[in-house]
Design goal:
The complex is a heterodimer. Chain A is of the alpha+beta class. Chain A has three helices and five strands. Chain A has a five-stranded mixed sheet. In chain B, strand 15 and strand 16 form a beta hairpin. In chain B, helix 1 runs parallel beside helix 3 (74-85) and helix 4 (173-182) packs parallel to helix 5 (202-213). Chain B is elongated. Chain B has two domains: 13-134 and 261-348, FAD/NAD(P)-binding domain, CATH 3.50.50.60; 143-258, FAD/NAD(P)-binding domain, CATH 3.50.50.60. Classes of the chains: A alpha+beta, B alpha/beta. The A-B interface holds A 35, 37-39, 41, 43-46, 67-78, 80, 101-102 and B 53, 57-58, 61, 130, 136-139, 170-172, 193-195, 197-199, 223, 242, 256, 258-259, 261-262, 307.
C-alpha cells in the first residue's frame, strides 16, 4: 500500500507500506525523519504525524495509551496521531500524512 | 620538581580507571564486566537516576528478550543491574552532561561535565544510547531567544515566578504539578493543553479543576502558536483553540512541559568520526577510531549491528577485556568464569 508523507521541509514522498506493519515503520525505513525513539512501544511520541482529514476518520480511534502519549507531543492538532499506532491495511492505501515538527 | 603547566590540571579532578558516559542498562553492565577485572568506574548521566531509556521511556513496559529472564520491566531490569554491580562501588554523577573531552599529555583522557565535575581516566566508554535526554522544545518561532529569561523547561526556584503572569503548557504530571504549586505564587496562572483530558495523576487533575472552579487558575484547550515580546522578555502569546480561533493572552513567563526527547548533544563534538549519529567501532574491542575511547550499546555502529540490550551486554564484555590492557599495560589478563573462580566470587562478595 502507498503512504503519501510530507516531511518537515514540505517535500512530499510516496512510501511503500507493508501490510500489517505500522506507518511509523514505513516512514522510518524510507529514511524519513521519524525518530521513533521507543521503537514503536507507544512510549515516546516522537513518531507524531498529522493525518489528512480525508483519512483521519478511517482510522481506528486512538487508545487511551496513545492519547496519553500525545500529551507529551508538541504542536498537537485535532488530526494528530502517533504513526506507530497506525497499522498498514488495504483500506488505508493512499493515506496522507504530514510529519509533525520535532 | 616543576609543577604542571597552569590550567593543565584543575584542582578538583578525580582519577579513575574508566569513565562511562551513560548509566543505561549497557553502561551499568559495563561496570560489572570492568569490575570483574578490578577496573574502577565513574558514570555520568544527564538523568537523575540510572536506567536511561529503560526508566525514562518505558519503566513499566515488559521486555521479553533478555536471555534467561522471560519478562522484566525497564525499571526492574535497571534495579537488578544496580544490584548486580553493587559490589564494585561505581561512582555515579547524575543530572550532569558530559560536555568536554580532551587528551592529557600523559595520554589519559580528561572529561568535564556541565556541573563542573572533572574526571581523568585512561579509558572512556560511551554508552550514551541515542544521546542526552533534554526537554522537548515546542516548535514556536523564535522561542530560543526567550529561553532562560522568560521561557523555562524546569522550575528551579518558585520565587522567580512570584507576581508574574505564568503560562504553563502540557498535560502530564509536570504541567499539572507546577500548575498546582505556582498558582498561589503567580499573579495569574493559565494552563493550556491540546485537549480537555490529561495523562497526569487524577488527583492533580481534580485539584486543578477545583482551582479553575474557584477562579484561581485559567484553563484553555489551546496550543501556543506565537510568542510576543522583546529582548527575551515575554509579554504575550498567541493561542489557538480547537476551532482554529486565535487570541492573544498576556503572559510574562512560559513553562512548556512536554517531557524529554533524545538529542545527541556534545558527544558529536568529541571527534569520533560519527556516521549518521553513530560511533563506528571495530567488533573485536568495540573501540572507536580514537584509541582508548570505546562505544557500546545503541550509540555504536558496525556491520550487522542490532540495537538490542543483549547486544550491548556482549559489547560491554569485549570492551572490558580491551580496556584492561590499556589500564593495566603491564599485567596479564587471566580469563575466568564466575561459576568456578573463587577470585571472581570474592570480588562479587559471594565467596
Amino acid at each position: 500500500m502507498k503512504i503519501i508523507a510530507t516531511d518537515r521541509k514540505g517535500v512530499v514522498h510516496e512510501v511503500e507500506g507493508t501490510l500489517g506493519w505500522t506507518v511509523m515503520e514505513a516512514l522510518r525505513d524510507a529514511g524519513l525523519p521519524v525518530a521513533a525513539e521507543c521503537g514503536g512501544a507507544c512510549a515516546c511520541a516522537t513518531c507524531h504525524v498529522y493525518v489528512d482529514e480525508e483519512w483521519f476518520g478511517k482510522l481506528n480511534p486512538p487508545s487511551p495509551e496513545e492519547l496519553d502519549m500525545l500529551d507529551m507531543a508538541v504542536a498537537v492538532e485535532s488530526n494528530s496521531r502517533l504513526s506507530c499506532q497506525i497499522r498498514c491495511e488495504p483500506a488505508l492505501d493512499g493515506i496522507t500524512v504530514t510529519i509533525a515538527p520535532e | 620538581m616543576n609543577s604542571m603547566a597552569p590550567g593543565d590540571l584543575p584542582p578538583s579532578r578525580t582519577e579513575t580507571d574508566v569513565i562511562i558516559i551513560g548509566a543505561g542498562p549497557i553502561g551499568l553492565f559495563a561496570v560489572f564486566e570492568l569490575g570483574l577485572l578490578d577496573l574502577k568506574c565513574h558514570l555520568i548521566d544527564i538523568l537523575d537516576r540510572p536506567g536511561g531509556q529503560c526508566t525514562e521511556l518505558y519503566p513499566e513496559k515488559p521486555i521479553y528478550d533478555i536471555p534467561g529472564v522471560p519478562v522484566v520491566t525497564g525499571q526492574e531490569l535497571t534495579d537488578r543491574l544496580m544490584q548486580q554491580i553493587r559490589p564494585f562501588g561505581a561512582q555515579f554523577h547524575f543530572s550532569e552532561m558530559a560536555n568536554r573531552l580532551h587528551r592529557l599529555e600523559d595520554g589519559r583522557w580528561q572529561l568535564s561535565t556541565d556541573a563542573g565535575t572533572v574526571l581523568v581516566a585512561p579509558v572512556i566508554v560511551v554508552a550514551a544510547g541515542g544521546g542526552s535526554f533534554v526537554p522537548k522544545r515546542p516548535p514556536i518561532a523564535g522561542i530560543e531567544e526567550y529561553e532562560g529569561k522568560s521561557v523555562f523547561y524546569a522550575v528551579r526556584r518558585m520565587e522567580q515566578f512570584r507576581g508574574r503572569d505564568v503560562l504553563i503548557a502540557g498535560g502530564g504530571d509536570s504541567a499539572l504539578d507546577w500548575t498546582l504549586n505556582l498558582a498561589p505564587v503567580a499573579n495569574r496562572l493559565t494552563l493550556v493543553h491540546h485537549r480537555d483530558g490529561f495523562r497526569a495523576a487524577q488527583h492533580s487533575v481534580n485539584r486543578m479543576r477545583e482551582l479553575v472552579g474557584e477562579g484561581r487558575v485559567n484553563f484553555h484547550v489551546a496550543n501556543v502558536k506565537a510568542l510576543h515580546g522583546a529582548n527575551g522578555q515575554l509579554e504575550a502569546v498567541t493561542l489557538t483553540g480547537p476551532d482554529k480561533k486565535e487570541w492573544r493572552q498576556e503572559a510574562n513567563a512560559f513553562l512548556p512541559f512536554f517531557g524529554l526527547t533524545i538529542k545527541l548533544g556534545p558527544i558529536a563534538e568529541f571527534g569520533l568520526n560519527l556516521h549518521e549519529n553513530l560511533i563506528p567501532v571495530d567488533t573485536a574491542k568495540f573501540e572507536s577510531s580514537t584509541p582508548g575511547i570505546f562505544a557500546i550499546g545503541d550509540i555504536n555502529g558496525y556491520p550487522g549491528k542490532l540495537k538490542l540490550i543483549l547486544s550491548g551486554f556482549h559489547e560491554a564484555a569485549l570492551m572490558a577485556q580491551a580496556a584492561f590492557h590499556i589500564c593495566r599495560p603491564n599485567e596479564k589478563l587471566r580469563f575466568q568464569y564466575t561459576t568456578s573462580s573463587s577470585n571472581l566470587q570474592k570480588k562479587l562478595g559471594v565467596a
